[in-house]
């Protein structure tokens, strides 16, 4: 069972919509990191965008993205934030509070925040749920364009 984790049904925990699987034996890696010994390194390599957009409503668009840049330790945060604001066409609302924005714009801010640190592994939990068809198409187009540009290294 090299590089595998054995899981038994009794090891499952469900908490707040999350399912945790407790390993009974074995080992595993995510992006080359040991899942037991190097959890913090793994977390730093993951981007996550939930179905329920998790932004700070009292902060502006720019402040939200900058917050996540600091959280992930992005070295040149100002430049990265400015790049994302331009890339996601958020410059006109960069200084507006998120609470005052529509769902499609909040979705773009959430996506920019999820990828601000250029994670090699990105989890998207129904990222286009609750948005109109045009916004949905724009989201997927942007994601495909990022991958075609060589993201996350671009």
TrEMBL record:
Transmembrane segments: none annotated. Keywords: ATP-binding, Nucleotide-binding. The keyword ATP-binding applies. It comes from the Bacteria. GO terms for molecular function: ATP binding; ATP hydrolysis activity. InterPro entries: ABC_transporter-like_ATP-bd (IPR003439), P-loop_NTPase (IPR027417). This is ABC transporter related protein.
